[in-house]
Amino acid sequence: MQTVRDGEGLAKALRAMRTAGETVALVPTMGALHEGHLALVAEAKRRADRVVVSIFVNPTQFNDPADLARYPREEEQDAVKLVAAGADLLWLPTAEQFYPDGYATTVSVKGISDRWEGAHRPGHFDGVATVVAKLFIAVMPDVAVFGEKDWQQLAVVRRMAADLGLPVNVVGLPTVRADDGLALSSRNSLLGSEERKAAVALAQSLNAAAAGIARGEAVGTALNQAIRTVKQAGFGPVDYLTYVDGATLEPLDGARSGGRLIAAAFLGKIRLIDNIRVILDTEVD
Ligand code: PAF
Question: For the chain, percent helix, then strand, then coil, each to nearest 5?
Answer without folding.
Answer: 45, 20, 35
